[in-house]
Structures are given as structure tokens and as C-alpha cells.
Amino acid sequence: MAISCGKCGRQYDVTLFEFGRTINCACGERVGFEHKLVLPEAGEIKFFADVNVARLVRWLRAIGIDTWWEDAISDADLVRRAIRENRFVLTLDKRLTQEWRTDNVLLLKSEKPLEQFAQVVGHFKLKLPAEFFTRCLVCNSLLKSASAEEIAANAPPRIRASQEEFSYCPNCEKIYWEGSHTRRMRTAVEDVFNRLTKLN
Ligand SMILES: [Zn+2]
Ligand SMILES: [Zn+2]
Question: pLDDT by residue (tens digit) across 42-89?
């Protein structure tokens, strides 16, 4: 099967356009067709963050959203994997939105992680979760709860003495507890949601 350039009629093999890839025709026209992302019904929204928005990732994970990130992944692999795994791509790279005609890419406007977070929350109408920190900020796995005794070997004694409830990541073994850092993040997240509520 062939796809024709809308301007000059040159023909290209359909396999060139897999996953919404577009190409530059010799006449200067951009050729390609839309790849529609079909999200599973009632499925939870998932993201694949581009290399350039690494610092946005922890904010989305903090509100429990499945957000994948990898360094050193090519644009082609990023788009392909995102489509296969039903993830929306978040990127600062305008070129990516031009080279791939797919509806699952959101171009972010700000360089600042919290502004990017606000854009994603507003765009996808994300909800403030009942519970924060259910997902590992480092590796994206769902956290499990543990008592002080259970994680005794891994938590600093000072923390063990002052806390009773901990969460830990079964994948990368990072331990989480309520402290000034989590409070700061929570406040920043709530500020974003409050700001968006006022706008609407
Ligand atoms: Zn052409
Ligand atoms: Zn982890």
C-alpha cells in the first residue's frame, strides 16, 4: 500500500509511517497520517516523560500517576513504546510533535517542573488523590507499607525513633516516611490544584 503526498502526488510505502511517523517529501510538504491513541475504557491515565522533562516525573508519581521515564531513549523508541503501552508522551521537544503525527503527545510550555505539572494536571483534568506518595518517586513502582521493625535495618535510627509508619519500594528498596520533604511536596502540589481550581 502507498501513501501519496497531498501536494505533489509522490508515493511512499505505508510502512514508513508506522506509529504516526511523518516524513519530509521532496517537494517540501510534510507527509503522514494521524495515529489515534485508543485508551482502554476506564483505564487510568499513564505517561511516558521525555528525557528533557526528567524533573516533572516525581511530581506526577507523587500523586500516584504511572509515569515512565528513561534516559538515553531515542524519539522513535519513545513514541513507539508510548503507543504500545497506551501512555501519553510529555515533552518539551517541538520537533517530536512535528515528526510524529500522533495524538498522544503533549508539548509542554514551561522549563519549570511545577509549571509543567500544572499544565499536565489542567490538560488531563487530573484529580487530587486522597493519598499522596503511593508510588516510588525514583522507579515508579507501587509502594508497600511497613512498620518500623520491618524496615529496621534500612531506615536511619533517628527516623526509626520518630516515625511509626513507613512505605517502602519493593523494587528499588527506597524507604519513605512523612517528613519535611514530603510536606513541602504536598504543599506545592496542593498549591497547583488550588490555583487551577480558581482559574476554572
Ligand atoms: Zn510532495
Ligand atoms: Zn523504587
Answer: 668 999 999 999 999 999 999 999 999 999 899 989 998 998 898 999
Q: What is the pLDDT of residues 101-130, one digit of tens each?
A: 777 889 999 999 999 999 999 998 899 999
Give the number of whichever ligand sits closest to the CA of residue 172.
2
Q: Position of cell 521525555?
A: 50
Question: Does any domain span residue 134?
Answer: no
Nine-digit cell string for 21: 511517523
- The answer to whether residue 187 sits within a structural domain is yes
Q: Could you list the residue range(s) of the whole structural domain that residue 17 is in?
A: 2-31
Asked if the structure places residue 139 within a domain, the reply is: no
Domain count, the chain: 3
pTM above 0.85, yes or no: no
For ligand 2, an ion, list residues with CB under 5 A.
136, 138-139, 141, 169, 171-172, 174
Long-range contacts formed by 152-159: CB under 8 A, 24+ apart: none
- Point out the ligand nearest to the CA of residue 4: 1
Q: How much distance in Å is there from the Cα of 31 to the middle of ligand 1?
A: 8
- Per-residue burial over 34-49, b = 16 or more CB atoms within 10 Å of its CB, e = otherwise: ebebeeeeeeebbbbb
51 and 120 fall within a common domain = yes
